[in-house]
# Entry
Amino acid sequence: MTINVRFFASLRERIGHATLTVEADGIASARDVWKAVSGESPDEEMLVAINKEYAGLDRAVADGDEVAFFPPVTGG
Amino acid sequence: MTINVRFFASLRERIGHATLTVEADGIASARDVWKAVSGESPDEEMLVAINKEYAGLDRAVADGDEVAFFPPVTGG
Amino acid sequence: MTVEIREHPFDPWQAVSEYRSTRLASGKSGASAVFVGTMRDFNEGDEVQAMVLEHYPGMTEQQLEDMRSEAVSKHGLEDALVVHRVGIVHPGDDIVLVAAFSAHRKEALAACREMMETLKSTAPFWKKETLAEGERWVERNTPG
Amino acid sequence: MTVEIREHPFDPWQAVSEYRSTRLASGKSGASAVFVGTMRDFNEGDEVQAMVLEHYPGMTEQQLEDMRSEAVSKHGLEDALVVHRVGIVHPGDDIVLVAAFSAHRKEALAACREMMETLKSTAPFWKKETLAEGERWVERNTPG
# Structure
């Protein structure tokens, strides 16, 4: 299974990449994706989008999905 | 006692004057001024200003005051 | 002058833009909340061709100035601007501009809304509409 | 286009004025409620020299468009316009414009405020400030 992962703002800097591709079996949810790329548990405030729509950490992911992680938004 | 009376909008048209001068004794309040110029009791919605500030119908008037009568405001 | 009565058509967006660039310190007001009221070509189901806006010279300016000062002081605004047309207006003409400038959006938005409610309920202006069948006074403003 | 992401400085007042004259039917929208957010030269007690505004291309536009459509439909607006800057901005630069156009003021004012709250809490934008001592991410928006 291939997941295209994106990071924004402080999470991009922390991970050190704007995008990563995760190719692995055993990944069921966005939470699993985060663990695969960071080796850590997600922090409470982290936001997740799957295919450019907000999603919960336990939302299922499928082959080819774009999963994005970012901190609270600060626009406007 | 001399009172300078002003009328606006539909009250101006009803009275037929934009300004009137009332010279009479026995006028104590804005209500008395309205009775003197119209011969009628004031209607509930009528607004009153004395010297360009909102006032109640029973507010006292003094020699030289400007007393204005007008309908509900409709600006904006 | 932060309260103005205008007898001729004005461009409210240009007025706000000019006011900001000439009267406000750059970089202080993070939030500008603006309301512009424009004459519509219909009211209460009828087509309106024109309108006369009457006011009470002296009292109207004082009411608007009091309203502006109270909003600035209550909400800690940087500044506020109020412009209102009088005289003969036509559909599409802008009638009123209320602008609140503040460091933060909450205060600017609340002050803008409150000034509009105060203006609608207390500022001495009266509208007389010209319809195809004649003229009529607008009897009251709708609540906000 | 009623949702725009701009990479260069823009004049929000000119944008509203042009939008009204080119996109809205004259005489229909009696009420225009507009909020403009501008970069300040201070934040949380510190002087800010510049800022980088990052967004999520594709998702940001979709979020803004959903927000705009919901506001139009909920409040029965004639139209609504949303413009947001990205990239490097400086104090005094305008960052966001939200405009709601309606027949009546109540709906325009409510829609403008609600769109700003939605934008602040859900639109994927992030600010990084440049201070004299270095850079820092803005961690969260203040509630409205």
